From TrEMBL, chain B:
Nuclease listed as a keyword: no
Gene Ontology terms, MF aspect: ABC-type transporter activity
GO cellular component: plasma membrane
Keyword Transmembrane helix: yes
Protein name: Membrane protein
Transmembrane segments: 35-55, 75-99, 120-151, 171-197, 204-226
Pfam families with a match to the protein in the record: ABC2_membrane_2 (PF12679)
Keywords, comma-separated and alphabetical: Membrane, Transmembrane, Transmembrane helix
PANTHER family named in the record: INTEGRAL MEMBRANE PROTEIN-RELATED, MEMBRANE PROTEIN
Length: 344, 281
């Protein structure tokens, strides 16, 4: 009898262990202790990033944490708040593979050196496009932390304090945290931009954008898994599967239409830059978007002032005003800065 | 593999484990309701196959991926049925296993019999697991056959969601992984169902709590303000089965949902054991 009661207690222990395990699973992997790294000046770090050699073959998982507060746009689930991931493979010599999973489908882009194949499992279509050998593989700016971080550093140094603020562990690799803060004179919604730089390869690993009034990042793009080393060559070939529709991509579809638009006007510099562009004619816009552009006529709130009237769209890091006469002003600034720019 | 070892140990005083498990197996699989349910489950992949062929219109999601790509069918069928139908089978077996026996008054005999209470729990858990395995296998096997015969494969190959093509052998491997993962999730449901079963004399209570619980979990998982709850909910990982259709397979969600299922198994199994050992005959 005693042993039976003892075993009953073991049973309860197992149940409690299960509950604790469930709790442990729910805890995010979290940042470990900040790694100890030799100090480096911000200037040296930025320089080493710009001069860094190609990291060579790699396989990585890129995660985008989006808390920008953008209105939901049909067809672009990544734009709305939430987390999305993508897998990237590179052979270090221009061939690459990008795979963007969605709930029950996947988009895959393979660059085998001569042809770029884009596969969409939703409608089983393959779009192929021949690329010259001298051409760089197309990389989405948002999902490539390297390009995104380097651009941010170059643009913001003039009006920001740049400092190396401690270290962090990103994707299991020790990294320096490069922090850019706007100078007090800048009128911006942003509080700081943090870039985690790999201590060994000097590859930007993570880009974090923090906005005023929130301790959680408004946007974070970075590697969550990263391994260097030779990749399976089979990853960089693509054969259209049986039953798929293969189409040739038209040559540079964007260029034919873009020159019709006037150059956007830029007001201010640094963090409080405001870009004022002219929208396509209103009648075309109301037909649900001319070139697949999302219909923006139903979002935002009505505002008006000496500059006219329009709709204001607020997000965590940026504000945009679409005026009734077809101008769009946008920037990482409060609405007042936008209206001042529109009045000029 | 303690089951096999104890079955071959000749010098036991009490009934050998193998005989107990065999008896439970016969008792579970000979029940007409189990057989009827398995028969109905076999119809589901066939109905999906016919529906996909008749509709002849490519929709989105997994069902859309079946068109012209029959080997997706077993995985899609398992993923769809994991939402409610397969847990229903497991919950029924678990309800009969303890609460059903208690309702018939036969549990007293089992508790008083010279069979250790621990072995009784193992026996009942084994019966539930067998139902989970058989139900999943029925769906998977009928799904493969219906996929190849009714829908027709892409030249007998599987086109993955990533756009690559897998041969028949590798495709079977993927279906096998999906089936194994599904059994793991069902075992978690079964363990919790057994724990509820050990506390009640009414089999319906078990059915209602398990299905109601799954629905509540689904609702909680769909509320954005409660997204911090998601790692705790068993149903969060129920859609991970489709990940075997990616190439290379992404193991993250499959692994984490399996770990979650193991935790639920520990909770359910521990509570069941504890309750059965301490309850009065």
């Amino acid at each position: 009898m005693a042993s039976r009661r003892g075993w009953a207690r073991v049973g309860m222990g197992v149940a409690v262990a299960g509950a604790v395990g469930l709790g442990l699973l729910a805890v995010p992997a979290g940042a470990g202790a900040a790694p100890e790294l030799p100090p480096v000046s911000a200037e040296d770090l930025v320089t080493s990033v710009v001069e860094a050699k190609d990291p060579g073959p790699l396989h990585a998982t890129v995660t985008l944490d989006n808390a920008l507060g953008l209105p939901a746009i049909p067809g672009v689930p990544q734009a709305a708040n939430g987390t999305s991931t993508a897998q990237v493979w590179s052979d270090g010599a221009g061939k690459g593979r990008l795979s963007v999973p969605s709930g029950q489908g996947e988009k895959t882009i393979v660059d085998d050196g001569t042809t770029v194949w884009a596969w969409d499992s939703a409608d089983k279509t393959v779009t192929k496009k021949a690329v010259g050998t001298e051409q760089k593989p197309p990389q989405a700016d948002v999902t490539d932390p390297a390009a995104a971080a380097q651009k941010a550093v170059a643009d913001l140094r003039a009006t920001s304090t740049v400092a190396v603020d401690g270290t962090a562990e990103v994707a299991g690799r020790p990294a320096y945290e490069l922090v850019l803060r706007p100078l007090p004179t800048e009128r911006t919604l942003l509080r700081e931009v943090r870039v985690a730089v790999d201590s060994e390869k000097r590859l930007p690993l993570r880009l974090t954008v923090l906005a005023n009034g929130s301790s959680d990042p408004a946007l974070q793009v970075g590697f969550t898994e990263l391994e260097f080393g030779a990749q399976d060559p089979g990853m960089f070939t693509f054969t259209p599967p049986p039953g798929a529709t293969v189409t040739e991509a038209p040559d540079r579809p964007g260029d034919a239409q873009k020159p019709q638009r006037p150059e956007p006007k830029v007001v201010g510099d640094g963090w409080d830059t405001v870009v004022i562009a002219t929208m396509p004619p209103a009648d075309a816009q109301q037909q649900g978007g001319r070139d697949g552009a999302p219909d923006l006529s139903s979002i935002g709130k009505e505002v008006s002032g000496p500059w006219g009237s329009g709709r204001e769209i607020d997000t965590a890091v940026a504000t945009a005003i679409i005026t009734s006469d077809g101008r769009v002003a946008a920037g990482a600034v409060p609405a007042q800065v936008l209206t001042e720019a529109l009045s000029q | 593999m303690t089951l096999v070892e104890s079955a071959t140990t000749p010098h036991r005083r009490s009934a050998p484990m193998g005989r107990l498990l065999g008896a439970e197996l016969r008792w579970v699989l000979r029940r007409p309701r189990t057989l009827v349910m398995l028969g109905l489950f076999a119809l589901v992949p066939i109905l999906i196959a016919v529906g996909v062929v008749v509709a002849d219109r490519s929709g989105g999601g997994l069902i859309g991926a079946i068109a012209g790509n029959g080997l997706v069918l077993p995985v899609a069928a398992m993923t769809l049925m994991l939402a409610l139908l397969l847990p229903l089978a497991v919950a029924m077996a678990a309800a009969d296993a303890i609460a059903g026996e208690a309702a018939h008054g036969t549990l007293r005999g089992l508790l008083l019999a010279p069979v250790g209470r621990g072995r009784l729990v193992v026996m009942k858990a084994f019966g539930v697991l067998v139902v989970a395995v058989v139900a999943t296998l029925v769906v998977a096997v009928v799904g493969v056959i219906a996929g190849l015969v009714v829908v027709g494969g892409a030249d007998g190959t599987l086109v993955t969601l990533s756009g690559t093509t897998l041969g028949l052998g590798e495709a079977m491997g993927r279906v096998g992984i999906a089936a194994l993962w599904t059994v793991g999730q069902l075992a978690a449901v079964g363990a919790v169902a057994l724990a509820i079963s050990a506390f009640t004399e009414h089999p319906l209570v078990v059915l209602a709590s398990v299905l109601g619980g799954l629905i509540v979990f689904g609702v909680l998982g769909a509320i954005p303000a409660l997204d911090w709850l998601q790692p705790y909910l068993l149903t969060t990982g129920f859609s991970a089965g489709a990940d075997v259709l990616r190439d290379p397979t992404t193991w993250g969600e499959l692994g984490s949902s399996t770990l979650r299922a193991l935790c639920y198994m520990a909770i359910g199994g521990g509570i069941t054991t504890s309750r059965m050992l301490t309850r009065d005959a």
